[in-house]
Design brief:
The complex is a heterodimer of chains A (99) and B (391). Chain A has 99 residues and is of the alpha+beta class. Chain A has two helices and four strands; from the N terminus they run E-H-E-E-H-E. Chain A starts with 35 loop residues before the first strand and ends in a 5-residue tail after the last strand. The model of chain A has no long low-confidence stretch (mean pLDDT 90). Chain B is of the alpha/beta class and 391 residues long. In chain B, the strands form three sheets. Chain B has a seven-stranded mixed β-sheet, sandwiched between helices. In chain B, strands 9-11-10-13-14-15 form a six-stranded mixed β-sheet, with helices on both faces. Chain B has a two-stranded antiparallel ribbon with strand order 1-8. The longest helix of chain B has 33 residues. Classes of the chains: A alpha+beta (99), B alpha/beta (391). The interface between A and B is medium-sized, with 16 and 23 residues. Bound molecules: iron/sulfur cluster (2 copies).
Chain lengths: 99, 391
């Protein structure tokens, strides 16, 4: 895992601060500044995958039962999934609460 | 053998870019730069230069295209002036931050308003802090010569920074001068093919220009500052190699009649030629006047100036731009800060001259040099003035 803070010396920066490793963003915790998080109500979910398609941060993946589950490591709490869910079964709940 | 031709300086600059075998040119026409890119587009259209000429709808796009092409590994050229430069400034910062060796000739022209197509250094100063290396030509031959030098420096893996070659609008760009064109073989031995240190390549994907969070931004800027400082010896080395190959040696600061000089004028750009005539006249009358001409504006030649001004009593710095509300012109401000920490430093006064195409004459230089002595002794509240301004 790369250093999440990016705190390195100027001497260690790559030329022009380019990122030389493809896909390295998967190592970065992009979900640490979220204030709201999406929680899915499985009772009403129809497994359509719209949340998975619309999430800009690849938070969702399909589980064995066909439900789409969140990996909060990447979720920035934008609420797009909740907005797009055709069954309104994703609710945005305050970070830190149990939802 | 190199051949000497009577040719418009703009055409010579375009020919230099051609001889550097550029791969991509993207530009938008703007007076007084137009002839350069016009000629390059002809060379490409006529099949004399195997390059992509990408016409665009604005200078912002011209520079963006250069950034993209350079990132893909192409040797890239563009040219601009004044308002065009103003429009591309945003991307100038990107080019240098991404460490892309784009070369641009800037045909210096005043900024609006009032609208002026004539020469001064407003545009040069607008690009001052963009992180580009900047050289300044004094005559047509230099405008041609400095293009080869620019690529050699920019593409050196110890540097990898973009370079602007400045030349004064009209007074240089539109003048027909005898220019010594180099043989292609000579150019090829001075300037090797471009080998990118890093480039966009689908086989080896990289990200150029990512976000710099507060944890990394300062380090990124520091790295860029160190890069332009580290360019100093390479710039000198490339001038040395140029002299060895072509017979003309350039320096970051050119000295003229500096032996025993007590009063020194400092110029940048084509007015240096007029100033040399003025210095000759004053020397013939026994006046101890010398001249320094700044050839390298970025990185600023602090050490060279300190050395050259050792023992000098008074200095008149001529600026071709007026930054409103500042304590004088930008070149003078830099010269002053270069000298400030010296215990034995000369009196420095600043003249703002030649704005928007106003002539700066031999007499003007003589007046400045002779006035400096009395200014030095008087109680001043301001250390600059605009010359030739009608009250
Ligand atoms: S809130 Fe935004 S980032 Fe988080 S899972 Fe939903 S769409 Fe993705
Ligand atoms: S969009 Fe809504 S219904 Fe569709 S899979 Fe996601 S949570 Fe279930």
């Amino acid at each position: 895992m790369a250093k999440e803070t990016g705190a390195i010396s100027w001497k260690e920066l790559s030329l022009g601060t380019a990122i030389l490793e493809p896909g390295s963003s998967s190592k970065l915790k992009t979900g640490d500044w979220r204030s709201m998080k999406p929680v899915t109500d499985r009772e009403c979910c129809i497994k359509c995958g719209m949340c998975y398609i619309f999430c800009p941060d690849m938070v969702y993946s399909r589980d064995d039962e066909g439900y789409y589950v969140q990996n909060y490591y990447y979720c920035k709490g934008c609420g797009i999934c909740a907005h797009e869910c055709p069954k309104d079964c994703i609710s945005m709940v305050e970070e830190g609460s149990n939802g | 053998m190199a051949k000497r031709l009577g040719v418009e300086v703009s055409i010579a600059v375009a020919e230099a870019a051609k001889q550097c075998n550029v791969d991509v040119i993207s530009a938008y026409p703007i007076t007084p730069q137009t002839h350069i890119v016009e000629h390059l587009s002809e060379l490409v259209a006529d099949g004399e230069l195997d390059a992509e000429f990408i016409p665009v709808e604005s200078e912002h796009t011209a520079m963006s295209t250069c950034v993209g092409a350079s990132a893909a590994g192409a040797r890239t050229f563009t040219a601009t002036s004044s308002q065009g430069l103003a429009l591309m400034v945003e991307i100038l910062y990107i080019a240098s931050a991404l460490r892309l060796p784009v070369v641009m000739s800037m045909v210096n022209r005043a900024l609006s308003g009032p609208i002026s197509i004539w020469n001064d250094h407003c545009d040069l100063m607008l690009s001052r802090d963009t992180g580009w290396i900047q050289t300044v030509a004094e005559n047509g031959q230099e405008a041609y010569d400095l293009i080869f030098h620019a690529y050699r420096v920019a593409e050196d893996h110890r540097v990898l920074l973009p370079v602007i070659v400045n030349l004064d609008g009209f007074t240089l760009s539109h003048v027909i001068e005898p220019i010594e064109y180099f043989d292609q073989a000579e150019v090829d031995s001075y300037l090797k093919p471009y080998v990118p240190a890093m480039r966009l390549d689908p086989k080896h994907p990289i990200t150029m220009g990512p976000v710099g969070m507060p944890e990394v931004y300062t380090e990124a800027r520091k790295a860029q500052e160190e890069a332009i400082k580290a360019a100093r010896p390479v710039i000198a080395e490339a001038w040395q190699a140029f002299g060895d190959q072509f017979g003309r040696y350039y320096r970051a600061v050119e000295s003229y009649q500096m032996d025993g000089a007590e009063t020194v004028l400092i110029t940048m750009g084509s007015i240096g030629e007029t100033a040399m005539t003025a210095v000759d006249e004053m020397r013939s009358r026994g006046k101890k006047v010398g001249l320094l001409r700044i050839r390298l504006f970025r990185p600023f030649p602090v050490e060279e100036l300190r050395k050259a001004l050792k023992g000098v009593k008074r200095v008149g710095v001529i600026d071709r731009a007026l930054p409103f509300g500042a304590s004088g012109g930008p070149v003078a401000a830099e010269v002053r800060s270069a000298l400030y920490h010296q215990t034995d430093r000369p009196f420095v006064y600043n003249y703002i001259a030649g704005l928007g195409g106003r002539d700066v004459t031999v007499e003007n230089f003589e007046e400045m040099a002779s006035e400096l002595e009395s200014l030095e002794k008087s109680e001043l509240t301001e250390f600059y003035k605009i010359i030739n301004v009608r009250e």
